[in-house]
């Protein structure tokens, strides 16, 4: 190439030319999910958020598209690579964090433990229906008094003959009120933490919907209560013991978040960019003012770097090297921060209009405040990385 040659100018929403780095299948999945979100979700998301509604009729649609448990093999799952799953999460969260949360919980927190640690009978019983959207799952780990400290969970499972009897409660459980099956983690006296596959029609199981949320309103969130809930031995996930089980599931879900958050941030940026070209003040579009351009450039740069990070971590997860939990913490911590900053900055460009549900920005901003703390708070992910750097555990 001669020194006088000049590369084609990048797209405003793809400054680093990342879209060209995906293969044909990854690109097709990304484009299909984006079109679905633009056609089916975006026109309605503001109303669903305002009304506090999760549109359950989309669940079989998500199953038909192959998005539920898409990164798992067999049992009706699509068997895509991790990067494709991440790109789907990015496009879903560009619609709404509640939508991506549903898919993340279904695939990474409910289906993954059955697929990874379950018996063949458990897999055959649940995974095909969950992949098709005919059955909904949830993940019961967080408790009213134990969020970031699952090792001290209060939910207890005790043997009674050949059965287990569980008492306790879980809090802030996505999909809980609409779930057909719950993956419930409980402490035991002899075997440490065990996971149980619990049909939600089991006597002693109750799911109470949490109302009056100011965030993730397009998501069903619940409290799970177990009152002498009796389960047979074959309800136990047989191939895992201890906190390794739930923590490995959280790492799977966090991977989706580090992609998804960039989608929410991108939606805010694109909205602000379009608005800056049409909003006229002092006789010209505000996009022509230096301070507005500075805001847009900073958002574009930060989001591009976040998407590059997500792509890199996706490639690691798909490689023989694999993806370490600390690297997932790096991605989740960085990219949620980037997305929140984009939402807040984009809101300032729209001024008063930024708080209207006519635009998605305030909805994304509210949702991202929850994304910042669920599945590992900023503090937890900071200390995970701090322990890696120093060799010292600072959790206590």
UniProtKB/TrEMBL annotation:
Record keywords: FAD, Flavoprotein, Oxidoreductase, Transit peptide
Residues covered by the Acyl-CoA oxidase/dehydrogenase middle domain: 138-229
Annotated GO biological process: fatty acid beta-oxidation using acyl-CoA dehydrogenase; fatty-acyl-CoA biosynthetic process
Gene3D superfamilies cross-referenced by the UniProt entry: Acyl-CoA dehydrogenase/oxidase, N-terminal domain, Butyryl-CoA Dehydrogenase, subunit A, domain 2, Butyryl-CoA Dehydrogenase, subunit A, domain 3
Domain (Acyl-CoA dehydrogenase/oxidase N-terminal): residue spans on this chain: 24-134
Cofactor(s) in the UniProt record: FAD
Record domain Acyl-CoA dehydrogenase/oxidase C-terminal: where: 241-387
Pfam families per record: Acyl-CoA_dh_1 (PF00441), Acyl-CoA_dh_M (PF02770), Acyl-CoA_dh_N (PF02771)
One of the record's GO molecular function terms: flavin adenine dinucleotide binding
Entries under PANTHER family matching the protein: GLUTARYL-COA DEHYDROGENASE, MITOCHONDRIAL
Annotated family: Belongs to the acyl-CoA dehydrogenase family.
Identification of the protein by name: Acyl-CoA dehydrogenase
Species whose genome carries this gene: Epidermidibacterium keratini
